[in-house]
Design goal:
elongated; single chain; alpha+beta; Alpha-Beta Plaits; 82 residues
């Protein structure tokens, strides 16, 4: 079954260390070049499609700034066109 993931990064805690960016096996995280947090950091952000919700980014984040959500996509068993 395909899995779709989504990450939420708390700008309150993210210090832009890039550990999550380097650890992401899907390469869908990056540092924002357009936003700066109230503490003066460029926060990490989801850069595109392809997150599987593996959670590696949340595990390596020293500030616990990342929450990962996973959704399993179940395919319909109903016959198509029936």
């Amino acid at each position: 079954m395909p899995v779709q993931g989504r990450v939420v990064i708390s700008e309150l805690y993210c210090k832009g260390c890039e550990l999550c960016v380097g650890a992401c096996p899907q390469e869908v995280l990056r540092l924002s070049t357009e936003r700066i947090t109230s503490k003066g950091y460029h926060p990490a952000e989801l850069a595109g499609e392809g997150c599987t919700g593996c959670g590696i980014c949340a595990v390596v984040c020293p500030e616990a700034a990342i929450t990962v959500y996973r959704q399993v996509i179940r395919r319909s068993t109903a016959a198509v066109g029936a």
